[in-house]
Automatic annotation (TrEMBL):
Cofactor: FMN
GO molecular function per UniProt: FMN binding; oxidoreductase activity, acting on the CH-CH group of donors, NAD or NADP as acceptor
Name used for this protein in its record: N-ethylmaleimide reductase
Lineage: Bacteria, Pseudomonadati, Pseudomonadota, Betaproteobacteria, Nitrosomonadales
GO CC, one annotated term: cytosol
Amino acid sequence: MTTTLFDSFDLAGIKLANRIVMAPLTRNRSPHAIPQPITADYYAQRASAGLIITEGTAISPQGQGYADVPGLYTQAALDGWRTVTKAVHDQGGKIVVQLWHVGRISHSSLQPNNQQPVAPSAIPANSKTYLTTANEGQGGFVPTSPPRALEVSELPGIIDDYRHAALVALEVGFDGVEIHAANGYLLDQFLRANTNQRCDNYGGSIENRARFLLEVVQAITDAIGAERTGIRLSPVTPACDMFDPEPQPLFKHVISSLAKFKLSYIHIIEGATGGARDHQQGATAFDYAALKQTYRTAGGQAAWMLNNGYNFTLAQQAVRSGQADLISFGRLFISNPDLVERLRLGALLTEPDSSTFYGGNEHGYTDYPFLNTQQT
Ligand code: 8OZ
């Protein structure tokens, strides 16, 4: 029997109703880093996804890089998240939280005591972040602040922040966590050559550049169990001004090292995040099939989740062929709360309005129509 997107899936003991995953999506609607009642509505509306991965959620004040992004480090934020997880579970859904530290992709005005953001090396990003105070209070994108290089002695504290965030995540009802190691944020900044020019045990060789990520994975899996832990990687994305001339051997090492943890899933962004699926860094096209093969050969058993620009046909094909166990959809979930039902019926999809992606209120957040409420 062929597998389809609509078949259930056993995610390390968590029963997913289907293989359609809601990808993490930054929405900037959590003032003071606190998820709001509308956050619970938004996620509950999308609970028919086999799995929801929340928007990136800061593990600490230092991990914050965009205005009104939620956190996991205050009681009020945790109370907010408890409401979200209950609302999703009441609708029969499953939800994991994406653990985020932005590294250099931040602005001093978002950092504790207006300090510089931190990074593996003091290399500014040619990139922007979002501030509500920009654009005469309307909110907007501004250049990120130059970072300072982390001392080795500071790394255990950041690992502790990850561990703590994972523990409290389970306490407030999440089904697990996703480690955000993609898209040019702190963990990816350690991995890739253009952002990591350290001369200690955390820089230089591929093994050294992967060390911090693997220490974070070890700490989180020790704390909450590998079966509650997934990870997101983006081997060639240029997002947040990232580059590595040799992504294949780098991610070969990363993925084979991850094989020894019994993680729940590996989530791979193919190509440029939100852009070209065939984006290339280095001399040759990235071989995603080889990446997966390396992982399986090394004994890795996690579910394999793919992302970036999938439409229904491409997604069905990936699942049918065994290339992927799960497919995550981003933008389509913004504008189609009942995406699963629409794909099942072959119904028309609502196009997302990019002007309401970041910041704002219910509009463009919880007011996208369900099929049965749509005007004809
Ligand atoms: C879009 C805007 C702000 C942040 C990512 C967390 O790319 C993000 C993000 C995306 O992973």
